[in-house]
Design a protein that fits this description.
Length: 266
């Protein structure tokens, strides 16, 4: 049997619409690992924001912060922080526009305003242990920041896209966009990991649903879109599985032949 590695997005892929891990997904990933395959995570979240999921699934390899911080079996193998000078300019421009920014290191998240409704609405949707990052407008100045969150509506995002060429802006909420280095993505992080492992693209699978999963699903040999994915994601995926709330992970792993003859709790 040829060993493979399977990358799973978190929100809308591993976690259902209520931000819970379906029992069928947990069982399917356990079976996948028992078959000798590697299970990994590829997410826009920072490591501190999915520690419990990694522990529950016993996963020690992940592409986090949309590809900017990559860990293989507990060892950091790739880091790609945002340009500090450009981030300073972005912070100044957003402040003048009365838009909030959150700064994400691999350890924490801080915000440049004490409180903003857009921030709370966006963060609350993730159902983390907090609904608004604590206030520290200087947080980005003395450490590596791998991703920022810019809080504005889609009508306002064009102002930023046209002005900041060193950053990519990827919307994940009606009030928030991920801010990552230009040219970076989950795909780049996955590439770094499979180079270390010596895997070909044909040995790589990925499951996702969001706009930040498009490059990942295009890059791997076997991209699987969730049934609840955006149409743009489904259009580029090699396979489409069921909705995350309808045993989408278990069904998808059977669909691509990695769990032949198993029902994984369905």
């Amino acid at each position: 049997m040829v060993q493979t590695i399977v990358f799973f997005d978190i929100d809308g892929t591993l976690l259902d619409h209520d931000k819970k891990l379906p029992a069928s997904a947990k069982e399917a990933i356990h079976s996948l690992k028992n078959e000798g395959h590697i299970a990994a995570i590829a997410t826009g979240r920072a490591p501190f924001a999915f520690k419990e999921i990694r522990e529950e699934l016993d996963i020690h390899s992940y592409v986090s912060l949309n590809g900017q911080y990559v860990v293989l079996e507990g060892e950091v193998i790739y880091k790609n922080p945002l340009d500090t000078a450009e981030l300073q300019l972005l912070s100044e421009f957003s402040a003048a526009s009365q838009h909030a920014i959150a700064y994400m290191s691999h350890e924490d998240i801080k915000c440049n305003v004490p409180y903003h409704t857009y921030v709370e609405d966006s963060i609350r949707s993730l159902k983390l242990s907090f609904s608004h990052p604590s206030y520290d407008p200087e947080y980005f100045k003395n450490r590596e920041i791998y991703q920022s969150l810019l809080f504005c509506t889609d009508e306002q995002e064009a102002y930023y896209i046209s002005r900041f060429q060193k950053f990519n802006f990827v919307r994940w909420h009606e009030y928030s966009m991920d801010v990552i280095p230009t040219g970076s993505s989950k795909a780049i992080g996955i590439e770094k990991m499979i180079e270390k492992l010596g895997f070909t693209k044909d040995q790589v699978y990925a499951f996702g649903d969001g706009l930040n999963d498009i490059e990942m699903l295009q890059f791997v040999g076997n991209g699987v879109a969730m049934g609840n994915a955006y149409d743009q994601v489904k259009n580029i995926a090699k396979h489409i599985t069921k909705d995350v709330g309808d045993h989408g992970i278990a069904h998808g792993l059977e669909l691509v032949g990695l769990l032949k003859g198993r029902k994984a709790g369905i």
